[in-house]
């Protein structure tokens, strides 16, 4: 379905590979205070914002088809970047956190591959709040470690679209959801005897 046949935000979130994103409320986007500082990070900021809010015209006069497609593709990339940066701020709010909790409970972010974490649900996290630095990782609140997403679609998502603080804010606001820290660890053995760490030194 084309993004022009319905609102851009649900269209974007329904794209295969964008399952980690929640739908940012348009009222949050329309409050320009929430967008402070983003203009400097996204080329053609106003055009990208209009596209997200459905204010962008679907056509343009004075362009041939190739020029139109080139411009449209560039604006689409910029809109996705802007939405991602807005998304990182939105999921720090009560509404955003609640949406992400629902996705977390549904296992939308995957499960910890560590055996002793017993398939603990993961949460998305970035290693930088600056776009273009690193891709999204998945945080396990049980072993307190991070992992690469399994899907190659998710491995290309910018980590700045989730930020470095989201999981910690979630558990700060909802401490009752924090799982107990895993205390079990694998102990290497040789013929039944524990291997002392100094053996490998």
How does this model look, in words?
The chain is mainly alpha-helical. The chain has two domains: 8-95, protein kinase ck2 holoenzyme, chain C, domain 1 (Orthogonal Bundle); 108-177, N-terminal domain of TfIIb (Single Sheet). The chain is 34% helix and 7% strand. It has seven helices and five strands, in the order H-H-H-H-H-E-E-E-H-H-E-E. It has helices at 8-13, 26-30, 45-52, 65-90, 94-105, 152-155, 166-173, and strands at residues 123-125, 137-140, 145-147, 189-190, 193-194. Helix 3 crosses helix 4 (65-90). The longest helix is centred in the middle third of the chain and has 26 residues, at 65-90. The protein is elongated, with a radius of gyration of 21 Å. The chain starts with 7 loop residues before the first helix and ends in a 7-residue tail after the last strand. 27% of the residues are buried. The model has no long low-confidence stretch (mean pLDDT 90).
